[in-house]
Design a protein that fits this description.
alpha/beta, 44% helix, globular
Length: 632
């Protein structure tokens, strides 16, 4: 990789001849394949934008010119060519490079990118700030076509197009977000035919009309405008963007560096909002004999020669698989059950449901707010929608949860994968806030299963519950044990807790997957002579009042343990309730503290937060010593 070894930043890329740029791109692509085979990561989008990245760095002047990437999935080649190639093997490793783009990591990362759809709005903010300060530089938003299934890019384009500010949008069109893109915008982009001739004709007609208007006087101005509009309708393949106020260029082969450089050179000479439409191939160059485009999105460590995944450690199934199989089996008993996801069929396990019940499966694209309100509409007609979305992504639909589901008391079931500490994906993907935000929703039933069997039992309970919304949360991890078939699992009684261990001196009230380490902590404390109760608080809301009242009568210290934020979390919610029924009982909450957690293995994140058996035991031991030292 002779060329890549000489690259320390964009200035080195600019020194290369045009003939050297494609060889450089080839080296970057191979570097990605080699390194990510060991670290795992979001390989597909990065492989698809290698040439685009080279062209952007060559044409523009980062960091003076502001290049804003939509979703960090596209950002690995950008990291390589902006001075982080040597550190690439630390990608997604504790203390290493972030798996997404991050302002604190490099001066070339203009905006943190973890969720789709943010680039256009952020870039427009930067362009506006530039103009307010009287400065001069280019602002470029690189938007994946999957992001156009979101609403925010259109809001940003509408605002930018109306303003006539100088801004460039590069539309990276690979026909994919994670799964294949869905909806009318995908069909529209697919219908655009590459023809540079149309742009040339439209520009010439525009100049001709402008000249005619000046020559013939103001009386023909209105006619000229109508004529120009008609020509645009006839000749412009990017009418959607034109109507939003953007001059359209493309589509262009996103793997042809020369074509992109020529286009960027032209576009830079113009002013106002412009869009450059490039066609790329997600996963380009990835060594799979039978390509699976959805699997190109992200891969666990793999063989760099074949692309095949390395053998995984033996053990129970992942929570995601248990969920997918459970709703697929339950759908046979409940013909009114449907599954909804937001561009994440495989990530949520709903792809299992999709194969069995394709007519009852709905992928709405990266549109979480729409997913929630779409489910609400279904629920008004007696359908039972199961909305499966990652905890961090469902935050985007919070207003819809309150306004469209909770206020109308509709029985929508929310299943939140990736709840709690999320591991290598880090800051933007942490599922630490769902307990706090769901507890705040009036009428919401909030639950967390401790194992796969209880997940199925809670799903059955949710299907029986028809007086309002119901949610379940579970992590990105292997479940404690294999789950039985859904037919063998009874519904969990609504609003009940389960006492796993009866003690006297202290009670640990554990949430979901925290039950297992809580039990281990209790066993180690028992060996020291400290008798501790452990309760499976599978229903966070409503609380099991009968069990809670029994606990406060026999225990003066309650310790809650949750894989989520302690700020307004379950511990805070429980403490408020205990204060009203037993004000002399102390409640202490263990969980994620009020800070941002860095990317690291999930087990390490839990250890750092004190959410392991050892951490829980140490905290309970210290609290008991405090209580014992207080004079009675």
């Amino acid at each position: 990789m002779a060329l890549l070894e000489s690259i320390r930043g964009p200035e080195d890329v600019k020194k290369l001849s045009r003939e050297q740029l494609q060889p450089l791109a080839d080296e970057v692509r191979q570097r990605l394949i080699d390194v990510v085979s060991g670290t795992g990561g979001h390989i597909g989008a990065g492989l698809g934008v290698v040439e685009l990245t080279v062209a952007l760095i060559t044409s523009f002047d980062s960091p003076r010119d502001q290049i804003v990437w939509d979703v960090g999935h596209q950002g690995y080649p950008w990291k390589i060519l902006t001075g982080r190639n040597e550190r690439l093997p630390t990608l997604r490793q504790q203390g290493g490079l972030n798996g997404f783009l991050r302002r604190s990591e490099s001066e070339h990362d203009m905006f943190g990118a973890g969720h789709a759809g943010t680039a256009m709005s952020a870039a427009f903010g930067m362009a506006t700030a530039r103009d307010l300060k009287g400065e001069h530089y280019h602002v470029v938003a690189v938007v994946g076509d999957g992001a156009l299934t979101c609403g925010m890019p259109y809001e940003g384009m509408n605002n930018a197009g109306h303003s006539s500010r100088d801004i460039i949008m590069v539309l990276n069109d690979n026909g994919m977000s994670i799964a294949p893109n869905v909806g009318a915008i995908n069909k529209y982009l697919g219908s655009i035919i590459a023809s540079p001739f149309t742009n040339r004709v439209r520009e010439k007609v525009k100049h001709l009309i402008e000249a005619s208007s000046k020559l013939l006087g103001p009386g023909v101005v209105e006619f000229s405008k109508k004529a120009e509009e008609s020509i645009k309708n006839m000749w412009s393949p990017g009418m959607l963007f034109e109507e939003l106020g953007f001059r359209y260029f493309g589509p262009i082969d996103g793997h042809n560096i020369e074509a992109m450089l020529n286009t960027f050179d032209l576009v830079k000479t113009l002013k106002g909002p412009r869009v450059v439409h490039v066609i790329t191939e997600k996963g380009k160059g990835f060594p799979l004999s039978e390509p699976d485009l959805e699997k190109f999105h992200a891969r666990a460590p793999y063989d760099p020669e074949t692309g095949e995944l390395k053998p995984a450690a033996a053990g129970p199934s992942a929570w995601t698989k248990i969920f997918g199989e459970a709703i697929t089996q339950l759908a046979a008993e409940h013909p009114e059950l449907v599954a909804i996801t937001a561009a994440m069929p495989s990530g949520t396990g709903t792809n299992i449901f999709q194969k069995k019940w394709p007519n009852r499966f709905f992928d709405v694209g990266i549109a979480e707010g729409h997913a929630v309100t779409f489910a609400a509409g279904l629920a008004t007609q007696g359908i039972r929608p199961v909305v499966a979305i990652y905890s961090t992504f469902l935050q985007r639909g919070f207003d819809s949860i309150i306004h469209d589901v909770a206020i109308q008391r509709l029985p929508v079931i929310f299943c939140m994968d990736r709840a709690g500490m999320v591991g290598d994906d880090g800051q933007t993907h942490m599922g630490l806030y769902d307990i706090a935000y769901m507890l705040a929703v009036p009428g919401m039933t909030v639950t967390a299963p401790r194992d796969g069997a209880e997940l199925i039992g809670l799903l059955r309970c949710a299907l029986l519950h028809t007086s309002g919304p119901f949610c379940l949360r579970y992590p990105r991890d292997k479940a404690p044990a294999e789950a039985p078939p859904a037919a063998e699992v009874a519904p969990v009684p609504y609003g009940t807790w389960e006492v796993l261990r009866q003690g006297r001196q202290c009670a640990i009230l554990s949430v979901g997957v925290m039950c297992a380490p809580a039990m281990k902590a209790a066993e180690s404390l028992a060996a020291e002579g400290l008798d501790v109760s452990v309760v499976n608080c599978r229903f966070l809301k409503p609380l099991d009042r009968d069990t809670l009242e029994a606990l406060v009568q026999s225990h003066k210290l309650l310790v809650t343990v949750e894989d989520g934020t302690v700020v307004n979390g379950f511990g805070a919610y429980l403490a408020g309730m205990v204060q009203t029924i037993a004000p002399d009982v102390r409640v202490v909450a263990l969980g994620a503290q009020d800070r941002i957690y860095e990317h690291a293995p999930r087990a390490r994140q839990l250890e750092e937060g004190g959410l392991t058996a050892e951490g829980i035991a140490a905290r309970v031991r210290g609290l008991h010593a405090e209580e014992a030292s207080i004079p009675s």
